[in-house]
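FAQ
Q: What does a multi-component entry look like?
A: The components come first, one per line:
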Amino acid sequence: MDPHPGRSRGVSQTLVAPAKEMPADADLAFERLYRSSRDDVYAYVAGLLRDRSTAEDVTAAAFERAYRKRSRFDPDRGSPRAWVFGIARNAALDELRKRGRHFELAAEPPDSRAVVAQEAEERERSLALRDALDRLARRDREMISMKFFAGLSNAEIAAALRISETNAGTRLHRAVAKLREVLDEAP
Amino acid sequence: MKLRRDAAALDPEIERELEALEAALAGKPVDPDLSDLAELASDLRGIRPSPRPQFAAELDSAAAAGFGGRRSGRLSGFAGRLGAIPPRRALLGAGAAAFAAIVIATTVVSIGGSRTERQAPSGTNTVAAAPSETVAPGTSNAPRRAPFDAQSGSSASASTGQATNSGAAAFEDRIGPRPAPSGPFASKHSRRAVERSAQLVLGTDPEGVRPASDRVFATVGRYQGIVLSSSIRDGGSGEAGADFSLLIPSDRLSPALTDLSAIGEVRSRQESAEDITAPTVPVGERLRDARAEVEGLLKQLANADTDSERAAVEAQLRFQRQRVATLRASRNGLRRRAHFSRVSVQLLTGDASSFPASGDDRWTIDDALGDAGRILAVAAGVILVGLAVLAPIALIALLVWLGRRAWVRTGRERALES
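Then the predicted structure of the entire assembly, as tokens:
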């Protein structure tokens, strides 16, 4: 009786798959991260900068920078999503620094397709909200963008800003309160 | 990215409002008193900026291409690849590069040190012949000498041994007396006093010890040398042998050594020379002074009028004559050392490998330990010097990096202050 019934017999060749054509794990993980966060990153950057063209440049630069540093990502230091938002934030702030502290980017015009589809009342509220956002301080606008445009959790915001989750919650609450104040003050 | 832990908890009302926002974003119902907050959250989601389809398509293409097309220039590409290296791997690479640099520096320094040691003047002339080399009686077995070996005048035969010859004395030994210096700074003493010595180890058969000893005596006699001591042992291979302590006139040392080397198989031959001109010159001058003193005292003695005066001069005369005798003995001793070379001849029998013939040249465990210690010392020195150079540079670079990082962070935070 064969003690090893499962053993192959008469095998003289071993086929090896072309491993070099397979993308590395880091590349696959980055691709997933890119797919899941592309629109969110753009929304956050555009919400902070209030300029579509600049937001596109900054978003592209952020993903390029993240791609180059993808092998340096450390899971112990936060989620991949928080990591890429940290990079996007730095890129956006660098853009703001480059353009000067007193230089205010042109406000993004409302999306005409969305506006047409909205009812008149909703359109009015939307315009008021955009106007209020423009009048908010950048720091508060950043919190609004991260939470409502990018859809980050408080933990992800905390990781991206390198602050505690409690602090992130406090800042977010303050930003929302400021936004409501501005909306209330609006004529 | 370690998060700072806040000990303080959120205010309950703030926490309630944040939970309401989360619920509204998730499409869940909220408390009626917070409905306006939920409405705000919904409105904000409604004005969420979306990327243009064209931009999204371009970015997708760039992502599929690995964002390679956006960078231009080899330098920026290299900088990008360099920046993409993980810190641990970069540290590993830097460590490997530093280790390689230390190894190379140590090797270079060690090789340089060995060359320096070989070239350092030692004042000795060592010749070790191959143990297997045998010599027929009557043929010259002098090891290969430099082409300018004019003093010995003997024909040099091939030797597979190694020779180390350096230093002024050895140079003199090869090319003869150093030419007399000339010019305004030339010394009055054109001949330098050099004390020479040689050690010769010869191998022969047990039966050949006696004939070889006779040839040693004959050679000493032929060159008008002196046998200070001799010891001849009979017996089997390894036991039989002879030891000779000889004085050979220095001006005939080279031909005498050539003849002595021809007596048997040369196991080793060492020659050394020491310049003793320095102690010889002051002894001669003091001797002349002492003799002049004696002559002066003799004149004083001849002119002495009283017994007490004569007795005093005679006492000084005895002292000076004793001094002259001592100095003369000292001068003669130095002259003898210069005129006669001390030669030690050892006749050995048995297997050549059992002799300490070329013991100084064999690489032993002690030598290995010594070499290892020297290499370690050199490596430690290289590391120390490297640290002394690199540490301040690294510290400055670290401070610059930290400062720039803090400046960039501060600048980014300031960019939000508007």
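Q: Is there any commentary attached?
A: Sometimes. For this entry: The two ends of chain A are 94 Å apart (CA to CA).
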